[in-house]
Amino acid sequence: MERLAFSCLFLFISLLALADAGSIGVNYGRIANNLPPASKVVSLLKSQGLNRVKVFDSDPAVLNALSGSDIKVTVDLPNGLLFAAARSKSFASTWVQKNVAAYHPSTQIEAIAVGNEVFVDPNNTTRYLLPAMKNLHDALVKYNFNNDIKISSPIALSALQNSYPSSAGSFRPELVESVFKPLLGFLRQTGSYLMVNAYPFFAYESNADVISLDYALFRENPGVVDAGNGLRYFSLFDAQIDAVFAAMSALKYDDIKVVVTETGWPSKGDENEVGASVPNAAAYNGNLVRRILTGGGTPLRPKADLTVYLFALFNENNKNGPTSERNYGLFYPTEEKVYDIPFTVEGLKNYHDTPRTAVPGNQHARTPVNGSGGGGGGVSKSTSGNTWCVAKGDVGKEKLQTALDYACGEGGADCHPIQPGSTCYSPNTVEAHASFAFNSYYQKKSRAMGTCYFGGAAYVVTQPPSAYSIPFPFSCI
């Protein structure tokens, strides 16, 4: 009994010591017609110990309600205003005056999210992003807020070309020179951080046959070793974030911090939305809170304590899309909890996840390319549940040929269709044939963890190779 008491005391002291290891916030979306007034929402946040909130606009009622609350706020300049903010310094200055200077510091605005998942915005606003951010920063300097308030922009994981293994994380090639190098340079110059939206739910939903649910929900599992860096991952969330860190590192921006501006799990979904349930949502968010408040950084950056914003505060009944879109809330509009999880170190003392009953099934785990989404405009993900394995053309013909020989030989890929005179021989290039062979092997192995690597010569895509202009015998996909 004394040993048990000592263990409990030690755990409590450990939790207190790690209280500043990370920070939990929440996204306060309002695409609904039945939500409580902002004043009651602020009281709810305070009662739950939530001291960070992110909104998708700069509504005066919300910002006034937050005044004097000591809750830190991230406001958003919507995608629809990017063009105006990029074109006109005067517009950007006026926007900051009306939406920031009018409230700060009584309302503790700590960041401006410029747009949301701009690279997947169908209105093609990417070109306006960085100019808008620079004009807004200039406006902050004008009001002497630039040291208090950071400027960034939330990216979806679809901005990555590759995220498996995590060590091979890279940004989409067409975005590197035009967006990410100047964006990361701006963040470094202004002392800001990269905002990232990450949703392991989408990866699990689309690949439940090869991704362990325990791996997706932060539960006990054997882990997955990244062949590129030798690190073992015990959660899909960590693997996704480290893919972003690796992509930044590849561009020599190891010093930029990451804030996870959206992540969550739906408590309800349509029949085909595998994994959407109250128990799974409770497990994901509850274990994530424990992971962030007590777990330090990621395997790749163990000292990089994370700030994470859960998506979302309420179920929002007016959101479009599948049923899951309306059921990410931690609370019903009545302010009743959808499921009971803590948000503070103190609350973690009495928190216990209820593991699922073991069921047979494939327990492989894999980090997908697309685990993005959320936000005011709806959750984005691959429109297909399929993934393909393709060759990295930039590794050189010699490395591709070696990997191709392995795939068609010892690997047992079906390479007959790419032999001379066969249906998939054209285009007759090493890269195209390697992509075919790699994909044959990958699909044969049921897209399992580690089957699309080939010594760094391959990577996973979530759309058919033709969507990326990747050399491939397209008629043979």
UniProtKB/TrEMBL annotation:
This is glucan endo-1,3-beta-D-glucosidase. Belongs to the glycosyl hydrolase 17 family. It catalyses: Hydrolysis of (1->3)-beta-D-glucosidic linkages in (1->3)-beta-D-glucans. Transmembrane segments: none annotated. Residues 1-21 form the signal peptide. One of its GO terms (cellular component) is side of membrane. Residues 387-471 form the X8 domain. The lineage of its organism: Eukaryota, Viridiplantae, Streptophyta, Embryophyta, Tracheophyta.
